[in-house]
Specification:
The chain is of the alpha+beta class. 42% of the residues lie in helices and 10% in strands. The chain has a single domain (3-222), classed as Hypothetical protein, domain 2 (Endonuclease III, domain 1, Orthogonal Bundle). A 5-stranded antiparallel beta sheet has the order 1-5-4-3-2.
């Protein structure tokens, strides 16, 4: 069992930096019990890593064929390559959120498939619906993760391409997202280059993957500080409300964020971390269950 100790040379909020890898409650690939555990597909195979704080150090242990690869990427995962020091806050509310959260950074997994898989499931549906489908697919078709924690490694592209129609249906996945996921699985080996190239455009060449999905992957895969989730149901309304007092659309949000290029996503991140969301005036959308149809 390989292990590693690393002392970050900057303030680090471990939970906040790694929390974006969790896909809802009951995520079969992630646990926050006793630190952070997650299982992943890597270029070397499946791996599990356990990360925790011990004073000023970060201690990590890993298991499986991909364990050492995960340990090698620990500093980048925790934001060592982040360009947060270059960020300039142009709004007092963003400046204050940054001041209160010096340990908030953008980490980079340097992996694409697991993140792309989860992001496709979250296209144009409620979070509850997406998380349910992620849990079902992971529990049914993900292999048991190496190590002592009962986790599941997200299903590989090859595993998903072998599923039958009824298996997709039992997991609650509609036809549109299924087609996009199959499209991505068929070229997954090529898409891993997107992390190396830092290219959202490469991901968007896949039919069904647009700017929202590519941004969600870029934020986590290579810590892209400018990848705004344009097209999200909530983000534009929340950002414009936080900065102007009136909820607006994507165009209004991008106009407000123009001074933050090339760190527009980071500005959004500080607003989200501060909990600034527009008041709700309508009931929540009810999640659809495609298993009923």
């Amino acid at each position: 069992m390989p292990s590693r100790a690393w002392t970050p040379p900057f303030p680090l909020d471990l939970g906040a930096v790694l929390g974006g890898l969790r896909r809802g409650p009951g995520d079969p690939s992630f646990s926050a019990e006793g630190g952070v555990w997650f299982a992943a597909n890597t270029p070397c195979g499946a791996g599990t890593v356990h990360i925790r704080r011990a004073g000023g150090e970060v201690l990590a242990e890993a298991w499986g064929e991909g364990g050492q690869w995960l340990l090698d990427g620990l500093p980048a995962l925790l934001g060592a390559d982040d360009t947060v020091d270059e960020f300039v806050a142009h709004h007092p509310i963003i400046a204050e959120s940054r001041r209160q959260r010096p340990g908030l950074r953008l980490g980079a997994t340097n992996r694409v498939w697991d993140l792309l898989f989860a992001s496709i499931l979250e296209q144009k549906v409620t979070g509850m619906e997406a998380f349910r489908t992620w849990r079902e697919l992971g529990r049914r078709f993900g292999e048991s993760a190496p190590g002592p924690k009962p986790l599941k490694v997200p299903p590989t592209p090859q595993r998903l391409l072998g599923l039958q129609d009824w298996e997709w249906h039992q997991c609650g996945l509609d036809g549109a997202r299924r087609r996009t996921l199959i499209n991505a699985a068929q070229v997954a080996h090529r898409l891993e280059k997107a992390a190396e190239m830092r290219s959202r455009e490469l991901l968007e060449k896949v039919p069904g993957i647009g700017v929202w999905t590519s941004a969600e992957v870029a934020q986590r895969s290579w810590g892209d500080p400018d990848a705004v989730s344009v097209g999200d149901y909530h983000v534009a309304k929340n950002v414009t409300w936080a900065l102007t007092g009136t909820p607006g659309d994507d165009d209004g949000m991008m106009e407000l964020l123009e001074p933050y290029k090339p760190q527009r996503h980071r500005a959004v991140m500080y607003l989200e971390a501060a909990g600034l969301r527009r008041p709700r005036r309508a009931p929540r959308f009810s999640p659809r269950d495609y298993r009923k149809f």
